[in-house]
Amino acid sequence: MKDFAGRTAFVTGGANGVGIGLVRQLLNEGCKVAIADIRQDSIDKALKSLDNREVMGVQLDVSSREGFKAAADEVEAKFGPVSILCNNAGVNLFQPIEESSFDDWDWLLGVNLHGVINGVMTFVPRMVARVKAGEQKGGHVVNTASMAAFLAAGTPGIYNTTKFAVRGLSESLHYSLLQYEIGVSVLCPGLVKSYIYASDDIRPDELKGAMKPVNSEAVERLAGIHEFGMEPDVIGARVIEAMKANRLHIFSHPDHKDEMREIFDEIIAEYQDYPKDPGHDQRVAFEKFRRDAFAQARAKSRAADF
Prior knowledge:
- It is built from 9 helices and 7 strands, in the order E-H-E-H-E-H-E-H-E-H-E-H-H-E-H-H.
- The protein is α/β, with parallel strands linked by helices.
- It has a single domain, classed as NAD(P)-binding Rossmann-like Domain (Rossmann fold).
- A 7-stranded parallel sheet has the order 3-2-1-4-5-6-7, with helices on both faces.
- Helix 4 links the parallel strand 4 and strand 5 (139-144).
- 38% of the residues are buried.
């Protein structure tokens, strides 16, 4: 995306952390921005820090499909069609899968994955319809995943699962929306100066039944660690740059590059040279069509200039 001025952007989790960094940078580019967040007090605080800007707040639980539609209608009635969507809201549980409950799964899946799905399914069909009708030129979707979409240690297990899914959703959507000149990027940050370590503060009461007691000492330690996280405005600026380049993956933290290379080398090394099994040649011939088509899609993406 090259033209930002005058567009309407919708940013979930927009009152803190990465979200507020995205909001400020989008405003700097001349966008009208809607801050969607579950915490009204955080929205109010964010709006006070953004005086004399075209910005509004809307309280939203991203796990609610009905809530998303109502928020979308409210924002578009005031600011006009949304053509930039940043699905950024996220929560975390710093625990392994085997120590987790179904309530834990429902909470993180509801926010981290279903929140992204709800954002995509609410706004993207509207964007596509407007592009087809000639009422809108392109657009862009940024889904916030994490380096946890690639680096899956034992903890945090459910968070890793949700972020891998967001990465897959984003990569598929990136190629399907090329025809409409709507860009899609997946943001994969590392450590950020944010409050995600305190996610339990906004956990719904109905999903607290089987939760583990909050370890206040661990939360305090995580708060100290996050103080050294990347500033949200730095991440926001890097996202804008990637959007202008129509980049699929946004790696805001270059400090993970060597580790990523090591992991992908380890994955490739796990391929084995098995002898040919019955049907091998026919199967490979069939897969060639898929491989060639995907290679063409990647080439088209790299060449895209919109």
